[in-house]
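Problem 12. The chain below contains 287 residues. Write out its predicted structure in token notation.
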Amino acid sequence: MKVKPECAPCLMRRAIFQAGLAGNGREFQVISAVSKTFADGLSGRNSAEVATDVHRGAYAAMGVKDPYLQLKIASDEIAERYVDVAEKEVSSSDDPLRTALEVAALGNIMDFGSGIAIDDPNEFKGLFNSLMSQGIDADEKALQAIDAASSVLYIFDNCGESQMDKVLIRLLRRMGKRITGVVRGEPILNDMTMVDARRTGIDKELDSILTTGVFAVGVDMKRAPKDLRDAIKNADLIISKGMANYESLSLEKLGKPIVYVLRAKCAPVAESIGAEPGDNVVRFFEQ
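Solution.
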């Protein structure tokens, strides 16, 4: 997805938020670093690449490797309490796959510091039921593609959200599908890394697990490791979770069908994917 003017204040807001998490009084250094990235030029660039540059500069200015660590741990602990409830929703549903996708999409609200989701994982406690009742805007082609696939490459997004992903992954495996998970190569935002996957046991829910290999918002295919490229080539279908993965992959030619599962939390992403802001969305694309 191409960057939009509205992305700039969102990125600055998040950078200031994470500087506050670092707690070392370097907010103004972070603002200066982000401003330099903006000054270097944004027009025409991929929004995820811009975000990667913003956060690389912000992390360097903070001098902290994983400012979201405690939020990630809290997010996983809180969201895990709702896994059994979500499993019951799926098992009692007339359309278990659609319901499991709804669960996975609503988890994408665990996205802190942007001003377009929640800023505290405790807020999830009061939102789960209303999010479930909201429903999901899902392409029938997406449901058909998932049903037909034997092997799925599942690209994770945020911690906390990943607990809701468990519900979908368990259903997919009961359907006989082989699932390879992909997590971030290095800590960035509240996204799940290999350390987080092992801490929460997500890795045990999968047939195999890989990383994106680098510090990047979403998946940077220009720097993707060979094992990830091979996994994309060998998968029947890609399921991509969250906005960052959509932003980074939507203009790529992967040569594979891809299903995006996310909450359209901002107007630029909603417009790009064909939804309304605040919708839980499942979209199918041939790439």
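Discussion. The chain has two domains: 6-62, 69-286. Students who got a different answer should revisit the alignment rule from Section 12.3.
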